[in-house]
Amino acid sequence: MTAVVRFARHHLLTAYALLALAYLLLPIAVVVLFSFNNPNGRFNYTWQGFTLKNWGDPFGVPGLWPALQTSLEIAALVALGATALGTLIALALVRYGFRGRGAANIFIFLPMATPEIVMGASLLSLFLAINFQTGFWTIVIAHITFDISYVVTTVRARLVGFDRHLEEAAMDLYANSWTTFWRVTLPLIAPGVLSALLLSFALSIDDFVITNFNSGTEVTFPLFVWGAARVGVPPQVNVVGSIIFFAAIGLMLLNVVRQRRPQRAAAPATATATVS
Amino acid sequence: MGFLHRHRWLTPYGLLAAGLGWLAVFFVVPMYYLAATSLKSGDIDFGYAFTWAWGNYAHALGRYQEQLLRSLEYAGIATLAAFLISYPLAYWIAFRGGRWKNVLLLLVIAPFFVTYLIRTLAWQTILADDGPVAGFLRTIGVLGADGRLLATSFAVVAGITYNFLPFMALPLYASLEQVDKRLVEAAEDLYASRPVAFFKVTFPLSLPGVFAGTMLTFIPAAGDFINAQLLGTPQQAMIGNVIQSRFLVLNDYPEASALSLVLMLAIVGIVVVYARALGTERLGT
Amino acid sequence: MSTRRQFVQRTALGGAAALALPSLAQAATRADSKSITISNWPLYIDIDEKTKKYPTLDAFTRKTGIKIKYLEDVNDNNSFYGKVAPLLRRGQSIDRDIMVLTDWMAARMVRAGWVEKLDKSKLPNSKNLQPSLQHPTWDKNREYSLPWMTFMAGIGYDPKKVGYEITSVDQLLTDRKLRGKVTLLSEMPETTGLVMLSNGDDPTRVTDASFGRAIKKIQKALDAGQIRQFTGNDYGPLLAKGDVLAAFAWSGDVVQLQIDNPSLKFAVPQAGAIMLSDNMLIPKKGNIELASTFMNYVYDPAVFANIDAYVAYPSPVAGVEKFLAKTDPKILKNQLVFPDARTRARLHSYDPIGADNRDYKELFQALVGA
Q1: Superfamily assignment of B65-283 in CATH?
Q2: Among residues 25-84 of chain A, which lie with CB inside 8 Å of chain B?
Q3: How many structural domains comprise chain A?
């Protein structure tokens, strides 16, 4: 009996997980589907027939490509900046007991408790007060500011329960905290850092509210889409959304395929050579 | 490094310095402006002046209690729903994902790559009155003949759940992923039952992720306004809609600031109680 | 691991490039003295479907040597105002030479003294402005503003689904058949204006009493479950899919929706509809001479005909018909782009002071739920 139950339970979980994934991907499927739509007018709301022309010319709408480019540049800078700052904070908070840790914990959490619109408006008032021209850099600053807490939370979840003896052993071995960090700590927390990078990239590329306040004359992809919605979102927006989605999936799949290759065993040696 | 080595107590402050410095300048200072603004009076055309106008708070609280409570309620339900959907998913990815883990994780945050507005409009298509979901629910009698899914509290909560699900799933995954599989196996031998082993060992070990996930979902959900705007009616208006309208439509910065601070305080209060209930020591924070 | 390191290096390089690019681009536009920056609503100007460029803007640059940085960053009057007001109040430049805002917001800008006077000596073509638009109450002789486009707000619906021709706002607000299938606009002037007209009140001179009557009527319909939502442009998909049977709508949207669903109609109620305009303004510190030159260029009917054919809203520039007769004769028959005299007589503007009245806005926002 237990075998049957076990089999059922095993697949029950898989079925549930697949359903959950389907729920997550359902709207994306709609977006992808409508990227092949062929509306005659400017509105891409009802199915009018299949076409590949949107895909043949994804940036056929003026302003779309520059907007996406701006968003990608910003998201890349933000992901790096926020992940670096946030990871250091997470390390300090989890691994060290120090005066003021409780306060720091609460402090880190406050930006997340701030509604986006509040953060956007209050940042704008700062930039105005110090006469700082709003534009590309104020968007980067704003995004890093709201991303840091997310990074801390994501990395911290990974760090809790992480074996410190490994690090202490490494410290004895290398007697250098920098080397220890690169060689031991970072690889161990890498999954958390990677999630943080991805998350902060995704959050940045998706943000509308905070960006809207601090963008000056810069137009990001979400700003473009929100604006276009007034007169009808062109199918090319769906194409671009689909491209970003498939590109990300493709990169990950490539990574999986590469990891299957046998030279994995040689990796640590190469690493030592490269790092030192 | 030698200096740091001799003064190890300094290390955490060194690690914190850059990030906290950043937040001090770009979060605390703006918050100070916000707090100051919440006590101002005047109007947008001629500017606002600081007058200790505590009346802004009284007015905001008196008038928008309903939306505030509704926001916390919707956010709570959506957080619970997101948890119930994500936990098995995160568990499955962590324990059964194998080398597909990263691909599956990417699928989890995939919604972010399709702009918020576009994916919320996609939900409008899915939940349409004549759409497949509503049709099915009508056929099985869950939905009345002229019942609808769009423009109801169901649609708003479903939209919020969807939009913030990745915030729940990622930290859950992060903490489940590092649960020692040997520990789970040992527990299964010990208790001879998977559910018991799960609740005695795996779940407690994943609590940091549960805490992080629920926070990351609840907080933005409580401040959201786009789902209520696109998928709800005025009866579903949330505090985010009010703050948005007071900031951007009425340009009433003082009261908008006051409401924002009230919302933040409410969230912090709930989180503190919640963290106590879950036991912060166990979370290692 | 070696690849990770390469990745880090590459990203650092990419990062540096990303750092440099925007500032270089900015430097390039700054250095060029003969250039202007225009802030407009998205998709509000003609686009060449083949080259994907803005032919009107390119032709202008070829003709005058003035370069244009064209931004589609006005999504909403209020949020645009929220963005630029703090700068304008301090007398700082907002880095734009022309911005396009709706009547009541344009009126607010003029009242605040945050816009420059147009250089009429550079603007002989302003004589082509439609007579009905020449003397708005907020800028009596068009010293500060010129309309970019006019637009109508009325009722969008599908007669096939509704079962009859809609002729009045009251049908939307009271017919039980439409219960829960009606949306109104979240823009206060459009929605209260249409309801005021249905009450026999004059939206061009809003009073506490007439505004109160409109709010009361909407509230009643809301309480009866008649009204489903207040929307921006998002009524489009709802109307297209049949979730909403009748909606307060903008004519230009219905023109676009009709291309895919020809049975959709735009009704100008018997009692009248609302007509507003989006206006070009020169914010303080903008380049008056170059901006006026640009305005003069688009006010040539031969030029504006191309813009109008694309945007499909009623033209504020007289005489475009002559040119459209050659290029796009079909559009001339479209009542939504070229309303006949009888329809025109039923179009009313909205009191710009009333549209900006704080108490009215509060009342309306309370209806919308926020």
Answers
A1: MetI-like (1.10.3720.10)
A2: 25-28, 30-31, 45, 84
A3: 1
